[in-house]
Amino acid sequence: MNLENYSFYNKLDATALDFLKKHLKPVKVPKGNILFFQGDICENILFLTEGKVRLYIQSDDADEITLYQLNSGEQCIVNTASNISQTEAIGSAITVTDIEGYLLDTKSVKELAHMNDAYQSFLFSIYTLRMSALAKLINDIKFKKLDARVLEWLNAQNEKTIKTTHETIANELGSTRVVISRVLKELENLGKVILARGEIELVE
Questions:
Q1: pTM higher than 0.85 for the full model?
Q2: Which of 155-178 are b and which e, b meaning 16 or more Cβ less than 10 Å from the residue's Cβ?
Q3: What are the pLDDT digits (tens) for 128-143?
């Protein structure tokens, strides 16, 4: 089933494993598709086995800020919280790449957590991890200068030349394209980056 990247999977007993195999539905979604919108009530939980998904929130004036990226073997707390509580999702999810995985409906998610301690523990652990990530995001927005955050984001891409747009960086960092463009120009003047159309080169 290709769920081995999930820490709980190999800890499932035979009953829980059979239950999971019976109720999971395979899914493939191309890059650039919305999985759910902010305000939706999620009817299924996604178990991502390949690809990346971006979680973000959007203000009334359409400004965006990335909450986190979901990778293979991870479960989304926005998706999970909406699904289990049947309340509106606090953010939207869009595929960064082509993705593959499985969907599990609300009733089955609750039943799996009830019948198996390993999955229940996994649910608690993802809340701890994501809350730490969100606390860091809030701390960065409040206390870090934007130029430092831009450089940190660029370095996190692990490439000397990053193919991206100023608008993408603005959405990632909760700023605007105009402000990001100004910051990048200042970084270029300081000799930290070289700007070109559609890409940014980091200067060592």
A1: no
A2: eeeeeeebebebebbbbbbbbeee
A3: 777 777 777 777 777 7
Q: What is the pLDDT of residues 20-62, one digit of tens each?
A: 999 999 999 999 999 999 999 999 999 999 999 999 988 776 6
Residue 185 three-state SS: helix
Residue 149 tokens, joined = 């955050």
Q: If you classify domain 9-142 with CATH, what class do you get?
A: mainly beta
Instruction: HSE, CB side, 13 Å, CA atoms: give it for residue 196.
Output: 8
Distance CA 140, CA 175 (A): 13
Residue 150 tokens, joined: 């831009």
Beta-bridge partner residues of 36: 93
Report the CATH number of the 145-202 domain.
1.10.10.10
Please give the distance of CA 40 from its chain centroid, rounded to a whole number. Answer: 17
Q: State the pairing for strand pair 199-202/92-95.
A: unpaired
The continuous run of DSSP H or E covering 175 comes out as: none
Are the beta carbons of 190 and 152 closer than 8 angstroms? Answer: no
Phi, psi for residue 136 in degrees, rounded to 5: -65, -40
